[in-house]
Structure formats: C-alpha cells, structure tokens
Specification:
Layout (H helix, E strand, L loop, with lengths): L8 H15 L6 H8 L3 H7 L3 H26 L6 H11 L4 H14 L3 H21 L3 H19 L7 H16 L16
Helix pairs in contact: 1-2, 1-4, 1-6, 2-3, 4-5, 4-7, 5-8, 5-9, 7-8, 8-9
Amino acid sequence: MSRPRTIDKDSVLDAAEAVVVRDGAARLTLDAVATEAGISKATVLYDYKSKEALIRAVSERRLDKERAKMDAAVLARQGEANALIKAFIATIGQGMDCRAQSVGINLCAAASLDAELRHGWEKLVGSTMTEIQETSTDPAKAQIAFLAVQGLKLMEFLGLYDWPPEERARILGDIAAMIDDPAPTGSSTKELPALQ
C-alpha cells in the first residue's frame, strides 16, 4: 500500500514561485523547490520530472489565474456591447501584485529559451485578440484598445514606468471610452504612410 501524499501540487507550485521570486527562474532547481516546500526531491519529481516541467506548471497556473480574472470580468458585463474588450481593460485596471510581476518577469526570461512555454502564452494572446475582434462592434477599435492596454501593461510589467493611480485610471478610461465612440477609425479605408 502506498503512502498518502502529504503535500498537494499547489504547495509545490507555491514553493517554486517563491524560489523564482528569490533566485530567478534560471536558478530554479528541483532541490531548491523541495527545500522551500519542506519535502523530499523525490516528492517534487513525482509530479514534475524536470525543471522545465515545473516551470511550465508554474506558468500554466499563472495563465489559469489570468483566465479566471477575465472570465469573472466578462461575466460582470454579460449582455453589454463590447463586453470582452471592456472586461480586458477592467482586468488590466486591477493591476498586478509584486509577486505576480516578479514571477512573470522570470517566466518571460525562461520562455525566451523554451518554445513550448512560449506557445501557451502565444495561444492565449492570439485567441484573446481574435475573440475580442469577433465580439466587438468595431473590431479595428477593439484591436487598437487591446494593443494600447497591452502596451501600458508591458511598460508597468517591465518596470519602465509607473503611472500615478489617477493618471492610470484616466488612461484606461479613455481607452474604454474609445470603444463606444461611434466615430469610425478609418483604418480600413486609408492606406498607412510608408515608414522611413
């Protein structure tokens, strides 16, 4: 008869995130995670056969949390026009805690070396952008809003600029207001100037 597990997968992933925050994804080892969780390396190996598998599991859990936030924001806007892009803007409006930001930056570094890890993120971004365009009354405006909000999020994520809360709220409000503005974008009829 096998011994019952004394630690669940979330506890192992919590420990992995703690190691990533403290040491970085490049220095994450199964031994370090086991020590952080207070368990044996064999217990970590039981669920995660390699460092890469563990990093992918941490990334998947982060993506699942982002999807859950989006799903809740969409549900709150059910029946509204442009509900998905507005939910996306509202989700970005919630900001990101320091731990999530630190884990995210380290996962980005790991993803630069792991095509399989990047693939999950690419799939999420691509499907979100497609669904936003398909469910918006003006797909061109929705695409511009998506890119604008992603740009704001990326600048904050990388620590390049932190907007004062009032200015950040105003920017996001202006982006959201653009969605419902009846004026056409004109992007579908005008040719863009050549870049020099």
